[in-house]
Amino acid sequence: DKSSSPPSGWQYIDSKGAIQGPFSLLEMQLWHSMGYFRDDLLMRCHPEDPFVEFIKLFPPPLVPFESYPRRASAAAHGNGR
């Protein structure tokens, strides 16, 4: 379903550089509503995706954790796929 955010598999890189997750969409929605995610926080919604800035996953007018995220393709990162 490309119309809504993936229900699970969310990960982010914390301030110490450690990967956190995977988390559910409900957890991510809650934490976003509490203002926990900075625009430059690196996250992804699938283990094969590269980590990208939060603001790049949900650029306006996309609604964070409601709209389908703008996933970066692996090919865009030069691994030839």
Topology of this structure?
Blueprint lengths: L9 E4 L5 E5 L1 H9 L8 E3 L7 E2 H4 L24
Antiparallel strand pairs: 1-2, 1-3, 3-4
Question: What do you see in this structure?
Answer:
The chain has 81 residues and is of the alpha+beta class. It has 2 helices and 4 strands; from the N terminus they run E-E-H-E-E-H. Strands 2-1-3-4 form a 4-stranded antiparallel β-sheet. A hairpin with a 7-residue loop joins strand 3 and strand 4. The longest helix has 9 residues, at 25-33. The chain starts with 9 loop residues before the first strand and ends in a 24-residue tail after the last helix.
Number of strands: 4
Count of helices?
Answer: 2
Order of strands across the main sheet = 2-1-3-4
Q: Report the C-alpha radius of gyration, rounded.
A: 12 Å
Shape annotation? globular
Largest sheet: 4 strands, antiparallel
Assembly state (oligomeric)? single chain
Distance between the termini: 23 Å
Helical proportion, percent range:
10-25%
Instruction: Please mark out the parts with pLDDT under 50 across 5 or more consecutive residues, or reply none.
Output: 75-81
Question: Could you tell me the mean pLDDT?
Answer: 89
Notable features of this structure?
single chain, 81 residues, alpha+beta, 4-stranded antiparallel β-sheet, 2 helices, 4 strands, 16% helix, globular, disordered C terminus
Describe the structure concisely.
With 81 residues, this protein is an alpha+beta fold. The chain is 16% helix and 17% strand.
